[in-house]
Amino acid sequence: MSARIAVYAGSFDPATLGHLDLIERAAALFENVIVAIGVHPTKHPLFTPDERIALLKEITKHLPNVTVDSFDGLLIQYCIKKGAGVIVRGLRVTTDFEYELQIAHANADLGPQVDTVFLPTRTRHGFVSASLVREIASHGGDVSRYAPPVVCEALAKKFATA
Asked: What is the pLDDT, as a whole number, of residue 161?
């Protein structure tokens, strides 16, 4: 495991400016950052895994030490497979911390060689979630304050055909 390799995982459905901020901050802290899209067979995301990968690659193209990938199964197993020594998690509110700490403890039990690092969101992104962005966009609302332009365009197209 390498502490120079970090994994920032999530559904990214869609990626928000808060996600991008965390990716940029992680890229400044770690030599390599893997943005890993979790694929869960029981969830029904708005964007396909391939669409989310393409969007994330586009919004992170200015970060040479960031790669985008997807995985299914346990995040800790994915990290071990990739040789990552760190999981990066973002925290928005207190309830995020309680949930994320429980997951971090489970990951530490399953893969003690991988540490979890929590990064608080910037105040301006603290209330923004992918579900909020989807909800606003589904009603034709302006999400440009919450998502990168390419994501806003993809949302507009997605809901124009829905």
From this structure: 72
Q: Determine contact, residues 114/107, Cβ cutoff 8 Å.
A: yes
Dihedral Cα 42, 46, 51, 55, nearest 10 deg: -120
> Are the C-beta atoms of residues 26 and 18 closer than 8 Å to each other?
no
Domains of the chain: total: 1
Query: For position 59, what pLDDT does the model report?
Result: 97
Mean of pLDDT values over 100-122: 94
- Whether residue 56 is contained in a domain is answered as yes
CA distance 62 to 67: 11
**What is the distance between the alpha carbons of residues 41 and 51, in angstroms, rounded to a whole number?**
16
Residue 156 lies in a domain: no
